[in-house]
Design brief:
alpha+beta, three-stranded antiparallel β-sheet
Length: about 100
């Protein structure tokens, strides 16, 4: 048996191929993208894919010992998806994550 060797492609060719595959899957009803379309509000014109991200909350989580003003590895959850106080406390104890609410 011979090993499969893919044809080398440029990043632009890969991008175009993935976009066409996604569009064709929606047209063929192979993939039901309704939950994603409703959540992320995808707009797929013929020449571009534009993603409107959900609104961010006013909470920031500085991960793994980082603090504001440092190298800032942080996570900002979507509005309405902020963990409760207990989860934030346990993240602080176990992973040294600091949650800060921006006012």
């Amino acid at each position: 048996m011979t090993e499969f060797q893919p044809t080398p492609q440029t990043p632009e060719q890969v991008d175009e191929g993935l976009r066409n595959a996604f569009r064709q899957a929606i047209k063929d009803d192979v993939m039901d993208a309704t939950p994603y379309l409703e959540k992320w509000k995808f707009v797929i014109p013929d020449d571009a894919l534009i993603v409107n991200q959900p609104k961010q909350s006013n909470w920031k989580c500085y991960l793994f010992g980082n603090r504001p003003g440092e190298n800032d590895i942080m996570y900002i959850p979507s509005e309405g998806r902020v963990p409760n106080r207990f989860v934030r406390f346990m993240m602080r104890i176990c992973f040294d994550c600091l949650w800060v609410e921006e006012k």
